[in-house]
Amino acid sequence: QVQLVESGGGLVEAGGSLRLSCTASGARFILPNMGWYRQAPGKQRELVARITNGNRREYADSAKGRFTLSGVNVKNTITLQMNSLKAEDTGVYYCKAVFAGVELWGQGTEVTVSS
Q1: Among residues 9, 51, 62, 110, which is most buried (max CB within 10 A)?
Q2: Which CB contacts under 8 angstroms, 24+ apart, belong to 57-63?
Q3: pLDDT bucket at 39, cuts 50 / 70 / 90
Q4: Could you give the 3-state DSSP secondary structure of residue 30?
Q5: 100: Cβ–Cβ under 8 A, 6 or more apart, which residues?
Q6: Pairing of β 109-114 and β 10-13
């Protein structure tokens, strides 16, 4: 059974950096579609960055130029490097994977950016 395990959230000052990691444990092949979504307090969950078809990256406008999403490595891990963090980046970050008609979500990791 495939499970998504996230790590790397925390508290950081505005302008700082954090790196989030997500590993799809139990997968028998490299997952082609993985990404990160954010849910800010009182708001809907939204895309931050994702990779599709194994190599196409897509970023939210708010993430462009500041966040970098790695490719899916042989351990089925993706990382999201977040630089120049702003207070509005605060929220719970969820990893998502889609494969063979299945959509999986991680438990979420909290990111708090203090201004």
Answers
A1: 51
A2: 62/88, 62/89
A3: very high
A4: coil
A5: none
A6: parallel
Distance CA 4, CA 58 (A): 20
Q: Specify burial of residue 36 (Cβ count, 10 A radius: 0-12, 13-18, 19+).
A: buried
How many other C-beta atoms can be found within 10 angstroms of the C-beta atom of residue 64? 9
Average pLDDT, the chain: 95
**Mean pLDDT for the stretch of residues 13-21:** 98
Give every CB contact of residue 44 below 8 A, 6+ residues apart in sequence. Answer: none
Instruction: Over range 65-79, report the average pLDDT.
Output: 92
Q: What tokens appear for 91 in the block?
A: 């929220």
